[in-house]
Design brief:
mainly alpha, 9 helices
């Protein structure tokens, strides 16, 4: 339920923004969430990590301003600020998948103890899910 509330709030806030930004945020959120059962993340909400990772572009404000006004756990806030966090490998994997930086993916997969096929499946599923959610 919390995830859907966050999704609705983000989509409403981004009504006038390009749909590609919304789609990217949704893909990121679902990708991270899909891998949440396979990577260590403590109390961090990985769906929220993916969603917030694009919120600065969606809202047109600096990420530091976003983070100053959101009650995020320390690991999530740290990785979004570019700092050290146990979430860094997942965050880097998410970005590598998104921009097609295929050379970076295998080392990150190994670091996270993930298999390449499961990461590719998570990415494809996230794209399909995001398209479905954003088209309704």
């Amino acid at each position: 339920m919390r995830r859907w509330v966050r999704l609705v709030v983000t989509l409403v806030a981004a009504v006038d923004k390009p749909s590609d930004l919304i789609l990217s945020a949704l893909v990121r959120a679902r990708f991270c969430e899909t891998l949440s059962l396979k990577v260590q993340h403590g109390d961090s909400d990985l769906f929220l990590l993916g969603l917030v990772s694009a919120i600065d572009a969606i809202l047109g404000i600096p990420m530091s301003d976003v983070l100053d006004n959101l009650p995020l756990d320390q690991e999530t806030a740290s990785v979004l600020r570019g700092g050290a966090s146990r979430l860094c490998p997942l965050y880097q994997l998410m970005l590598a998948q998104e921009c097609g930086n295929w050379k970076s993916v295998p080392p990150l997969d190994r670091q996270l103890n993930l298999q390449e096929p499961e990461v590719a499946t998570a990415s494809a599923e996230a794209m399909l899910w995001a398209r479905d959610v954003s088209s309704n």
